[in-house]
Amino acid sequence: MSKLGRKLTWRISAVVIGVFALSMLVNQFFLPKYYHFEMNQKVTQAMKEVDKWDKKRIENDLGILEAKYDVTIVAEKMSNNVDDLNEMLRLDLAQKRIALNRFWVTGETVEDLKKGAIITKLYDQGKQKSSFLVSLNEKDGLLIMAGISIANYDETAKIINEFNLMLMLFGSILVVALTGFLSRKITKPLKELKMVADQISKLEFEKVSIETRDELEDLATSINVMSDDLKKAHHALLRRNKELKHFMADLTHELKTPLALIKAYSMGIQDGLDDGTYMATIVKQTNQISVIIEELLRFSKMEVDPLHLEKIEVRMLFEEILANYQETTDLDIRTKSEISPEIVILADKAKLEMVFNNVITNAVKYATTNQIKIEWTEQNNKVYFAIKNETTIRDSQTLEHIWMPFYVREASRNKNFSGTGLGLAIVQTVMEQHEFEYGAKLEDGWITFYLIFDKVE
Question: I need a surface site. Which of 5, 54, 148, 187 has the fewest CB within 10 A?
Fold first, then answer.
């Protein structure tokens, strides 16, 4: 049995045994007094009600009160002869099947009754092991007595306590067995949860199946959700680490080439080999390094900058940006739109402009023809944007790498053609910050970049 199981078993058993012990104490010391109090209330209430009746009603309707309060009530003419009075009371009680060994109304009691007192007495019946509780009153020359038999509760309590003791012993054994069984049912799911938690701590993202329809099942569900989330976060971290390695390698390559050229041409100047073009080359390569560093700083800053959300007419914003390219390039841009120009989304305008600029630049730079297709659609409260161009890419696995910083598809990495390789990485960062969907796909020699925005009213 587990530690928790043992604690549950012994603590529950201690509580049950304590309850039994308390019950025995109550039976022994308090229950007799409570029992006597309740019986006394019956005769007292009956006598109070009789005190409100007239003589005629007392003589005729006492049976009503007897049935109401479950007591015995008799009435006899008050007499100065105590013996005669007691004999008449005994006969009245005998007619109602009340046989008493010890019962006597004294002269002193009679005198007190004549003065208007209501007297309550308890007559111990000796071997009958019971007592007779009576309430006496004098009304219109009648002695009225309400009485009830009371069992000798000391012996009754002793029998009850003996029974409770045996019940406690049996109950304790039963409770220990049942709590042991139930604690196993409780602790078994906890053991499973502990095992899964240990596995998660070792980066083995397992799940647990518990169906108890209580808080333990809720806890298991929460742990399963946590396991899934940690698994995704772990895989994302591994992917990020892998991307970081590629990023460092690509960044090194990006900086190594211009630095090597700067060094070579600087040494040429030092050796007097300059033909008048060396300095221009050094300046050009220095500018290229500056561009890379500025792009890198902007990219890094973008990941930590908070979003400044506002309502934007997304199609109108895109068309304004696209107009700048149409003025400077000879492009055959074909737009197909199924949405209104006034359709609105919630986004950071400055960052969204960067996204559109980068997808357009990417299409212009890598298209194998001057034809570019743009599509706008709306479905399920979402706005779908797609930009397509013909491409030399044929391997769909390449699409997994194009979002990486400094990844360029032109093998020679000619900057006049391929750029810094941060454009699509910026698109990815901004879209993920907004929690918008994005992606790329190949189809019949065309590459499509799509962006999905949440529409707002």
Answer: 54
